[in-house]
Structures are given as C-alpha cells and as structure tokens.
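Page 37, top half.
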Amino acid sequence: MPSSCSLLYGNEIQVERVCSLDPLGADARLAGLPEINSSGDVRALAALLRGLLPARETLSGFDADGCLAAMRDRGMVLGSLKRFGREPLEAVPEATPLLLELGERTDMVPRDVVHHYCVWNPTGPRERMYTGDVQERYLQESVRMVFPRLRAALELCQILREHEPHDPKFSILLDALDHEISSMVDSIDLVIEHVSPRFFARVLRPYFAEITVDGGVLLGPAAAQVPLWLVDEILWASDRGSEDYSGFMRDSVRYSLPGWRNLHGSWKDSPSLVTRLLEAYGAAPDAERTAPALRTSAKSLAAVLRTVVVFRGRHLGIAKQAYREELRLYPVGSGGASVRLLQEIIDLTRKNAQLAKAARHRAKQAETAQA
C-alpha cells in the first residue's frame, strides 16, 4: 500500500530529504553516467542497472522517500539504455519486479517522471545527469524552480472553488494565483537563454523516450508532466476545452503526484472559473452586474489567463524550433503533446481570456448607462 505521506509529496521538507538520500549507493556510479553515455556503451549501462538492483529484503526496508530516490537513480539508466536503442527491461529483465514494487509503494507509475529527474534530483556534485552538459543542468533547474510556486498555485485554485466571483476575495486570490504562475514565465525564459533547440532535440530528447514496463508503455520525464494543465482545468478547461486537450490530460494525470491526481478527480467535472464568472454576470440583477467586486474578478481572471498565454507562447516558440522537420528526431514532445496541440491550447486560453474581458466591458457599459 502507498505510504500515508504520499499525498504530501512535493513539500520542501520531503523534497530536501529525497534529494539527500542515496539508498542504492549510486552517487559514485551515476557520476560516471555521462561518460558512459558519450561512448554509447550499452553493455556498461546494463551492468550499471544491474548494480542498482537491491535485494528484495533491502528494498523492503526503504521508506517512501527512499523508494522515490531509488526510482530516481534507476530511472537515469533506464532512459540511457533506451536512448541507445535497447528496451531496458529486455536488457535487464530482473529489474521489472523491483520497478513495479517501487511504483506500488510510492503510488506512482513504475518508472521515473519529471519529479524524479528534476525536483528530487540533488544539486551540486551529486546531481544526476545524462550528458553532464551545462545546458542539461539549466533545463533541470528551470523545472526545479517552478514546482514550489506551482504547488502554491494549485492550493489557491482549490480555495478559489470555495468563493464566488462577486466575493471581493475572489479577485485577491486570482491576483495571488497570477503571481505564482508568473514563475512559469521565468522558467521558460531561463530555457530560452541557456538551452539551444538543437541541444534539446538532438542530444537530450532521446533520453526521455518511452519504455515498456510489464507490457505497458510509459513516457519518460517530460516538461508536460509539470501540471500547468491542472491550473488550466480550474481556470477554463474543465468545461471549455477540446477533446484533444481533454485526452492529453487523461493521458498525463497518471504521471502526476498522488495528491494532484486527486485534485484532477474533483475538478474535471466542475464548472471552470470562466464559466462561473459568466454565470455570475448572467444571473445578477443589473445593479449587481456593475458591482466593483465582480468587475475586478473579471479583470483579475483575464490577467491570469494572459500570463498563461505568455508562458505557452514562449514554450510554443521553443517547440516549433526543436520539432521542426529538419531537426527533430521525434514527431511529438516527450510528454505526448504535438506542436499543433500546443497551438490549440493557446488559442483556447486566449478565447477564454477574451470572454472574461468582454464580461467586464459589458459591466462597464451597464454602469455608464445607469449613471
């Protein structure tokens, strides 16, 4: 059974502890991983993976955080083997039951995800890397810097469900959400400045390829596993999305933290904030439609959506370069999203931002007419 602490994955204390752990004695071994990868030595990689397989009785002594650290370290070798054309569990089949046990005990998929590769990855001399290139380190840091504020953003989203658009607290919460989401813009700017599309497409992307575990295909660590889609869901996507985006979210939820999967379960069929705002305007008497709190809520909601559009627009720019036909090695991103889907999400976000702005504009017109 999953540990009782599993719903707390991602808090600062837990992240610090997982980063500090080396349950498989992998520090020295993984320090040499970039050199092995530079030579493409599949036999050495298979031997490395075998060396990271503890006895079952040893594994049974790991707590939840130790299991996360073990999955992190083993995952680096899984991705490396697949990058050089080998299904890792065909090369080392004895790893399969241990991966399945780690997945069950942590209540996550039985391989590494973006949390393992970035958030639970120690920094400094112990940082686990596929290539050792400074560009890879910047990419890891761009994800690492987002998660604390994204966690705060999701907490704000949950609180927003408990307030109505005409409540003055609604816009205050949205402004706080906008502040937290702005970290996404900072992170993508870091990538734009320090990671070339060619390096990502040709060097790093192959390490994130999907692998087969116990007959099922599992994606590798991917930026798309950073659940901005959960924020979209509460803002607009629960009832104003598209079938393609809904399908992407259904495919992505399994790679999320347990607590975030629970949020998706409670949010996916709820009215979005955009819908609630439009309904508040539609149901309110004329005098209430001009209430300052309702207008301010519309303004704040439009601002949050605008910030999301800025981030996604910059992300789309990178994706278009990395996945252009003459450069790419894969047709879609490591999280399963295509460039076309990214464009569709931006278009839908802009459309919903315009709805929020239009509602506020109508309220202003009504106020002027009453004056």
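Page 37, bottom half:
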Amino acid sequence: MAPPSHAAITTVVRMHWGRILAALVKQFGDFALAEDALQDAVVAAMIAWDPKIPDAPDAWLITTARRRALDRVRRDQTLARKSPEIAYFISHQQSDPEEACVTIPDKRLEMLFTCCHPSLDAKTQIALTLRTLGGLTAEEIAHAYLDKPATMAQRLSRARVKIKAAGIPYRVPDPADLPDRADAVMQVIYLIFNEGYLASSGDTLLRCDLSSEAIRLGHILYDLMPDMAEPAGLLALMLANDARAPARLDAGGAMIPLETQDRSLWHHAQISQADQILQATLTRGQIGPYQLQAAISALHGQAATWDATDWPQIAMLYNLLCRVQPTPVVQLNHAVAVSYADTAKAGLQLLDALAEPLADYSHFHAAKADFLARDGQRKAARDCFQIAINLTGNAADRAFLQAKKQRLMLH
C-alpha cells in the first residue's frame, strides 16, 4: 500500500481542524497555544501517518496536540497551577495518541462568537474565524479581502494577543445579545462557504469540505436564532448555490459556466428545501441582504434553461441589494445582471465606477472581458481576460479564462 500523500493528509487535517482547535482553545484558554500545538501535531502526522492515515485521525490529532500543548504548559508552572483542568490533563496524559479514546466536544459555535466579539473590528472578526473555524490560510483570507497575505497574517496575530489580553469570554452570548452579534457571524459563515464554492487558490475550483462546513454552521445558527430572518436567508442562499455544485466541473475538473451547465445534475430537492426556507422567512417582512441573494439564487434554480432566466427580475433584486449592501462586488454582480437584462454596453457603463476598488479583483476583469466580447470589442476583451488570468490564484479558474481568451483569438 502506498503511503498517504501530503495532499491527502492536508485534506484530512482541514476536515477536522476547526472542531479540534475549538476544543483545544476551550481547554487551554489560549488561541496561540492551541494553534501552535495543533500545528505541531500536523507536522508530526506527516511523519507518523506512514504507511496509512489512522482510523480516527481526529483523535490522533487532538491527543498529540494536547500533549504538545502540555509540554509547553509544564514550562510555565504558574499557568499549570492556575488551571485545574490543565493539571488534570497533565496527570492523565496518554502516552500513545493511537491508544487514546478521545471524544471531541463540538465547540465551534462558541469559537464563532468569540472570534466575532465586539472588541475586535469587523475585518479581524471575519479573518480570525476563517482561520480558526475554516482552517483557511492567511493567503486565502487575504484573497477574500483583496488584501496582502503579510498584512492579514499580522492582523491574525494581533487578534489572538488581544483576545488573551482582554479576557474575551469563550461562550455563546446571552439570548438578548445574540442579534447584535449575529451579523459578523453570518459574514464569517458566508465567506467560508464562498471559499468552498469558488476556491481562491489551489488546483480545484470546489472545496466541498468548506462549503459543507459553512452549511452545517448555518443550520446551527438558524436553529439558534429562529426569530431572526437573516440566518434563514443565509442558509437558503448557501443551500441553493451548493445545489448547483455537481454541474460546475467537467470530468477533467474544468469549470463549466452557468449558461452551459447540465441542469439535470443539480440537486433539485436541495433547491426546493432552500426555497421553502426562503418563502417562510420572507413573510416576516424583515428583508435583508442574504434573503435578497437567496431570492436571486432561487430564480436561477427555477429556470429550466439559461435562456429562460428571468434577468430583469434578477437585475431588480440586485438593484435592491445595492441599496442595502453597496459593496463593489455586489455592484459588479448588478452590472452582470444588467448586461443580460439590457445590453452588454449598459453593463460596461456600470463598471466604470468599479475600476479602482476592484483593480486587483480577477472576476471584475473577467466580467469586463465578457461584456467587451459581447459588445464586439474583441481585442480589448482579450486584454482584459489576460489581466484576469494574471490575477487569479486558482488553477481551474485560470484554465477556464484561458480557454475563453483562446476562443476569442480563433474567431
């Protein structure tokens, strides 16, 4: 039997990272210690998991991480004396992680609200949770924010220090405090989903582990706050988008655009589930950005063919979304909808105001290239496609853009 590849081990680690790290933070009360210990365990796994990955890799990782953390704690006797739980772990430490019977409590919701504490700024809240819950790297988080990796790494480091120094509590807030804290948590969950739905880097477009994790967290938030409309809208949005995932790649892993997808491959039962959740929450009259995006996704899901898509309705919904969430990316999506509801030239006119804020955003240049090609400006379209190709960090996305550029050169 061939030993597991580095990629296979990385996939397993990513699958269990958030749950294990949350449990370690709860036990040791220290983000930096928990993450360093888990990273040490991952390094050890790269050597120890030969010739095969153990049957319970999560148990192996958390036991090894605890041991590494305890080794560090022993060097700080003051901390060891102050924490009865740590003292207990020291006295009952297992010698072999494969022999340990480990039950890992699911503390990810506590982790979400800790990372989204009001004392942290919004960008740091989201970045820290993407790292700790989703296991995303600083590079991946930086891409989501159109930021530099080094800057994002510094932000994450400062956040961990601040949580420890300020004694930010590791718990789910009281019911009265939940609404005020929910917005940042929902942003976190949706960014995790988006990284799984359209990976910013790597060789594959989809990372189903992240999108599945985001949907799971979305279900938890939806159950936790049944009287709020937006968690329902977020869950409906993720379910509807995720339902189209089976049709987004061909057998070779190449991207298939929405207009040419085989819609029989979509999970129509999941689309119906999303629609039911959305329709139930729209009656509350608490319309927000996630519900509007879910309604847009529902219109795509209801269209039997690309030509049957209700673009005027989608453009109208994006116009409403721009009013409640006037971000450059939302405005870009509005321009795309207008280009189909009206003309490519009309879409191009809307892009003028986005050229500066989205200068380093691959999808902006890809959209502009598409508009230009549909408007008959083929040379300018090829140039824009090349800019988009240079900016993307995902191999599947890059290949898709290169193919579109090549078709323009051939015709």
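Margin note: The radius of gyration is 23 Å.
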